[in-house]
Design brief:
Elements (H helix, E strand, L loop, with lengths): L17 H14 L4 H30 L2 H27 L12 E4 L1 H4 L9 E7 L5 H16 L4 E7 H10 L1 H8 L2 E5 L1 H16 L3 H19 L17 H15 L6 H4 L5 H25 L8 H10 L10 H29 L21 E3 L2 E7 L2 E4 L4 H4 L3 H12 L2 E2 L1 H9 L6 H5 L1 H11 L5 H10 L2 H5 L1 H4 L15 H17 L7 H5 L5 H13 L10 H16 L3 H12 L3 H8 L5 H11 L2 H16 L8 H18 L8 H19 L4 H8 L4 H6 L2 H17 L4 E7 L4 E9 L4 H11 L4 E8 L4 E9 L5 H20 L4 H6 L16 E5 L7 E8 L4 H11 L2 E11 L2 E10 L8 H12 L23
Parallel strand pairs: 2-3, 7-8
Antiparallel strand pairs: 1-2, 1-4, 5-6, 6-7, 9-10, 10-12, 11-12, 11-15, 13-14, 14-16, 15-16
Helix pairs in contact: 1-2, 1-3, 2-3, 2-5, 3-5, 3-12, 6-7, 6-8, 9-10, 10-14, 12-13, 12-14, 13-14, 16-19, 16-20, 20-23, 23-25, 23-30, 25-27, 25-30, 26-27, 28-31, 29-31, 30-31, 32-33, 32-35, 36-37, 36-39
Amino acid sequence: MTDMKTRPLRPECELFDVEAVAADLDRLAAEHQGRERELRIAVAQRLKAVVTEGRAKAEQMLLADKHGRHCAERLCQMQDAVIAILYDFATTHLYATQNPSEAEHMAVVATGGYGRGLMAPGSDIDLLFLLPYKQTAWGESIAEAILYCLWDMGLKVGHATRSIDESVRQAKADMTIRTAILESRFLFGEQSLFDELVTRFDKQVVQNTGPEFVAAKLAEREDRLKRVGQSRYLVEPNVKDGKGGLRDLHTLFWIAKYVYRVRTPEELVERGVFDRQEFKLFQRCEDFLWSVRCHMHFVTGRAEERLSFDIQRDLAVRLGYTEHPGMQDVERFMKHYFLIAKDVGDLTAILCAGLESRHQKDVPMLNRFVNRLRPRPQRTLRESDDFIVDNNRINIADPDVFSRDPKNLIRIFHLAQKHALAFHPDAMRTATRSLKLIDKQLRADPEANRLFLEILTGRNDTEIVLRRMNEAGVLGRFIPEFGRVVSMMQFNMYHHFTVDEHLLRCIGVLAEIETGQSEEYGLSNELIRSIQPEHRDLLYVALFLHDIAKGRPEDHSIAGAKIARHLCPRFGLSAADTETVAWLVEYHLVMSTIAQSRDLSDRRTIENFVQIVQSLERMKLLTMLTTADIKAVGPGVWNSWKSQLLRALYYEAEPALTGGFSEVNRAQRVAASQTAFRKEIASVTDWPPEQIDKYIGRHYPAYWLKVDLASQVGHARFVQETEATGLPLATRFAFDQSRGVTVLTVLAPDHPWLLSVIAGACASAGANIVDAQIYTTTDGLALDTISVSREFERDDDEARRAARITEAIEKALRGDMKVPDMLAKRQPGRARIRAFRVEPEVSVNNQWSHRYTVVEVSGLDRPGLLYELTSTLSKLNLNITSAHVATFGERAVDVFYVTDLMGARITSPTRIATIKRALLQPFAPRTDRSSSTEASDASAVVG
């Protein structure tokens, strides 16, 4: 039998009867005596069943008590018990030693995440088999017996077998191993071995290396956040590795354990790092994040760390969130998540302040990319005796600064912005604790509002200062309407950030436009220099307020205008300026909507737009606001196509707003675009001038106004290459990395069914169309650019997929395959889109065009939707003269300009009702759809 010193004390476990399972294994050993292989299989099967049943029980207990940390502790206890039983079994039945030598001793140690004593259902297990000296046959056999059984159970196990000397040596050289040992926890075996490792680790590795460890962990954190996203307000956050997630809490505690030599978070209070209230906050954050992570693993059945849209609603229900007016249950859950992520950031700042005071960490700057100031000695500010500058950071002169004058809660941010100072964590900590001082009296104070308006419209790091103001809680308290949207998530695939983060990013984009940092903003870069100086500040105010009414039952644009009319006088704006801001807020979506979903060559479109904007100055302001709004939605949302559409709409509307006078009239703009094309195409091809002129003549004026130069050149080369082959049609594809889409270009003879066939072929290949640009040439060709959602990260994988899509398009256009047959073979779409509910709407409008009836359809997007809509319109004997296809996340908004077969608009109420009913059919559940949505003979459109 094994030496009793090394035999584990079987740990307690809430999830299964440890003694009963151990007895089961003893019985299996007796039944399979002499048949070791069969015994190992039987043991693995029995323990696998134990773990499966234990996880199911843990899930039920989590649903009942809603304590994530308790669930993580139970799961860890279960794993401890399983490994203890295995170790006991291996040393008793497989490799028993009567009189073990000094080398035949071992300590089994949990390291890394497992060492913390907390596990999610899908967490890895990290084990260290600690030996006194070198590896022995006995130690190797014990380790292998445990590991192979765990692997046979389907568990993910990381492991190492090392002596104490080797562990210390590797910890000195490798920061990952150092962190793993820092988190180590004795399981069973020789306690003295583990105690010796801890003692030597402290003396030989940790001592006097605090700054090195802190720097390494913070650098590691930066690298991690670059991979998963720098913002803690991403709407599909990574709960484990994202900013404000569990890994940030772990990093915080690793650093605290290393520098302060504590073993439990509670000891951080004794060391003065956190006060009692902050420690409770640490516990709340940890419990909530563990609840979310454990539920995610239970729901998905795997180690899923990304809180994606398709599981957010399930988690909201499991965690007990309910729907409130203006906010879904899932949006309330995600708002809580982002508030917790913010709290994690606050705790990190508090710890970093303590480390700086111990000289364990470098001092930060307000803007790390701009400021490169050398540390300076402590000094006072001439504007106020209440604040001091400490190493380029603003701090309070004494603890009573805010209570003595609550305006200082605004003034500290104003001074920091004015002097480009970072914020001392102690000042932010005190400000957060003083939020109750921000009351009605302070909100009505003219001086406080003047200071805030100067911050909002300042020219120095406005976005950064407002974000610090928001993180401290001051912004939401001083502007309660803003406080309502703090950490508010919009449950859709279009917006990448929470509402407050989006508003702050808008301010940052406008500052970039104003400083001319990037040419990507197109027309806005030009307009910012031409607006009336007094309107510059109004633009900042309007951007700050444009989405402030999100989450209310009323339309947020209308409700936002009401809020603007209430807040602007408080900020000191005149009645006229207030009305301008309110107008911008109320109509902030109009320009984007018209540019992307209306025919800009239709005079009625321009007339309707002009009726709304009414003045050139307002249109300039609206153009810049729209640009910043789209850009701040998320990566890849703003692009050259949208920039070109806004430019086209602006210049189409300008003559009507100026009484016929335009700085650049339509003919001049077309000519300028053609001149730029001539110059560019001549530089990249050997086309003679007459060939260039002939090609230019093949496009209608609208093409030259709506398509950017790079695309014009690409189209020209594509057309030339196609015609050189003598083929009647051709396709090509390219990748737009910034937008995350694959761009397909199709050249074919124009035909009423062309768009429908292309859409059907894309759907048959599982491609989801997110936007489309459709142009016809004067000689009867169609040049269509279709953007589809990208599916693969690697370009070579996506290229193979794109080749399949373009092949399907060509087969359908040639008539080699019928679209309905192709669709019958398609694979069902991914489940992610099914997480959303979008009420479908169809409008049929004769007020948006003099010549056409405009049909607008919106609803939940999916592969095949555009095909069904276009084929439905064709079967209704409607001729589609132009189509404007756009998606906003999960919502598709498709606009069709149509006539009847005689070229007339649709005016009959009965006919209009029929159109609406037919176009709602594609959104009905598949079993309820009319068979009329299947196309008949729409395949062969190219001879």
